[in-house]
Specification:
422 residues; alpha/beta; seven-stranded mixed β-sheet; 22 strands; 20% helix; globular
């Protein structure tokens, strides 16, 4: 009797899941000549509710969500080594409202961005997206640092140098990259004033579909508190899509700090990032592009929390602006992304400036400015991604200070990155 009840319940859940496929982004993005069934009124209401509130339904601890990824086929039940209830469905998933990082509980805000040209993101070439990465800060003086002692701790703040013109660099590069789907900037090069200026300058000009404007220091609402390290995401017309405040400040050990020529250090054991940490994460469904999240540098290292986000929310894209001495295969971003690559169908995009390379006491040759890593195991329906595992991104030349990659292009992609550095 119990087995019969379970079987009936599962059949009912699958029937509901099949109905919700009618309003799933993977279905909505089909060509116009593909016929779709008329929607029942209750489904239209829930679809509208998702657009406004980010989810079909929500209670005190969980939300009913469109199952990710949005722009690529999910892993099917047949591809999972063992029974898993969530894998039985293609359209729906139940996810928690929060994730835990140590003793902190971080709420996950859910937002949906539509395909409107002015406030949203119009459709593009799904699966073969073109990505441009701009380091912005090329030289040692492009970023400046300040070290202070407070509460018996040594703090490091990093901000754009006096002569750095981030908006001008972005606008000049956009002329060469206006056909990109994503334009990605690194950490601590783009402050709120720069975002506002770029937003105004983009009005009426051709630009990428999405601009992940790295991050920069932003004033705290209460005077006297350290600033936030915050990033913004814009569409091609300069409209703000969402923002993220870094949730985990970086603690630099003496071993790492000793490699850098940092004036003002007292030799304290730790050098902590001088910011106020944000208190939430934002997951954004761009129905024409995919499910996205921004994790600023150390956010990407949060143990358990990031793993839980990838496993439950199944994003399409993880954008990671960082400040480091490079993004080569031997560096921590590749190690971290490779370890996470088996948890979802997410594609990781990591971008760094070049300024910190010049802060090294023993500078290296110009390193990579970015890294792209795809899933370790792709769903069978996405098997054309199987040989596109990892690619380092370098500046095109000494004159063109940006890098370009294209998913599924086959140009320079490697498959060894998940097991060992190349």
């Amino acid at each position: 009797m119990v087995r019969e009840q379970v079987a009936v319940s599962l059949c009912a859940m699958r029937a509901i899941d099949d109905l919700f496929l009618l309003v799933h982004p993977r279905t909505v993005l089909l060509a116009p000549d593909v016929p779709t069934a008329a929607l029942p009124l209750w489904l239209e209401v829930l679809a509208e509710r998702r657009t406004i509130h980010g989810a079909y339904a929500q209670n005190h601890s969980h939300r009913l969500l469109t199952r990710g990824p949005l722009s690529r086929a999910p892993t099917s039940a047949a591809e999972v080594p063992g029974y898993s209830l969530p894998e039985q469905f293609a359209a729906l998933q139940v996810v928690p409202l929060t994730v835990r990082h140590g003793l902190r509980e971080l709420p996950i805000v859910m937002k949906v961005v539509d395909q409107a040209a002015t406030r949203g993101v119009p459709p593009g070439k799904t699966g073969a997206e073109r990505i441009a990465i701009l380091p912005v800060a090329d030289e040692k003086e492009d970023l400046q640092h300040a070290i202070t002692m407070r509460d018996e701790n040594e703090y490091l703040a990093v901000l754009p140098g006096a002569d750095l013109r981030p908006v001008e660099k972005v606008l000049a590069t956009l002329d060469d990259c206006d056909d990109a789907d994503v334009f990605l900037l690194p950490e601590l090069v783009f402050e709120s004033a720069h975002v506002e200026a770029l937003s105004e300058a983009l009005d009426g000009r051709r630009a990428p579909r999405i601009i992940v404007a790295g991050s920069g220091l932003v004033d705290h609402e209460q005077a006297g508190n350290p600033k936030y390290n915050a990033g913004s995401v814009l569409n091609g017309l300069g409209a703000s899509l969402w923002a993220h405040r870094k949730t985990w400040a970086y603690w630099m050990l003496e071993q790492s700090a000793g490699l850098l020529d940092l004036q003002g250090r007292s030799g304290h054991q730790h050098l902590r990032e001088d910011i106020t940490m944000g208190g939430e994460l934002t997951m954004v469904d761009i129905d024409s592009f995919g499910r996205c999240i921004v994790l600023i540098c150390q956010d990407f290292q949060m143990p358990v929390a990031v793993e839980d986000i990838l496993t439950t929310y199944q994003p399409d894209w993880v954008f990671v602006p960082i400040l480091d001495t490079g993004t080569g295969f031997e560096r921590w971003p590749r190690v971290r992304a490779s370890n996470l690559a088996g948890l979802s169908q997410a594609r990781f995009l990591i971008a760094s400036s070049l300024a910190m390379t010049h802060w090294l006491k023993d500078p290296e040759a110009e390193p990579a400015i970015g890294l792209a890593i795809g899933p370790a195991q792709v769903a069978r329906a996405n098997d054309d991604d199987a040989n596109r595992a990892i690619k380092a991104v370098k500046c095109i030349s000494t004159q063109k200070r940006y890098g370009i990659i294209e998913w599924r292009s086959g140009d320079g992609w490697e498959t060894s990155g998940f097991n060992s550095p190349s």
